[in-house]
Amino acid sequence: MLRSMPDNFEPTRATLHAYSLAVSVIARAHAEPHDKWWHVALRVDGPLWSTDAMALPGGGSVVLRFDLDDHVLHIDTGDDRATALPLDAGLTATEFGSGIIDAVGALGLAGDYTRERYASDEPRAYDRLVAAEFAAILADVADIFHEHTQGLSGEVGQLNLWPHGFDLSVEWFGTRIETAEEHGVEYELPAQLNLGFYPGGRPYVYSNPWPFEAHLLDVELPHDAEWHTDGWQGSVYHYDLLAADASGAEKLREFAAAVHRCAAPTLLAD
Predict the structure, then answer these.
(1) I want to staple 124 with a disulfide (CB 3.0 to 4.6 A). Which of 15, 53, 72, 142 is the partner?
(2) Residue ranges of the alpha helices (H) in 31-127?
(3) What pTM was computed for the model?
(4) Buried-exposed string 202-220: b where 16+ CB fall within 10 A, e elsewhere
(5) What ranges do the domains of the chain cover?
(6) Stretch (H or E) spanning 173
């Protein structure tokens, strides 16, 4: 059974989102670049959310790791240089980001950091119990996503917690190649189908094929899942409906499988 979202979750969610943006600025500058931008994302392992290891000038490496058991951000070097920042000290995003930059600077890292990605002097609330409950929910959902992708054939990406949108997602890649344009530059990209969890507002699970074929709207999705076309195209299953159901975890699995079953054929090369 899936856990219900904790009461009064939004203030703590917003703080974790703001702090993760600060962490991503360091990863963007120092992690080994990946062509799908996975190097700016966090990896979820139970209550631990971690960056990739980043090489240090004098040897060794550093990992930035949220620990939602101890409620700190570890600046983890694996030796006596390791430090930590508290998550519940009421630090603004600007203060938190400056603390990280100072900590990695003491390890020899320096860069032209894009502080505007996270800078804010808004007070930040953090409830330890709420954060721990959310970490458990995210870990449960991550396990289901991993189980789903393990059963797929073809190329599957890495499960990421994305700081920009603060959502958890993984992609399955089709063999069809599409052209996309960004900032006036054209790119060739594989067609793909994501599976994700967005915890803000009314939290929901989503699964969105790209490109989206209109005839998919004629396919009936299982249980309370539905197609979504307002602002973006894909499918949603609101998390509160899953958590209120003793069979919610199984229904989430069935939702992911159903969308993949109908969408994957549209993402394959002829």
Answers:
(1) 15
(2) 93-105
(3) 0.96
(4) ebbbbbbbbebeeebeeee
(5) 10-117, 166-267
(6) strand 167-182
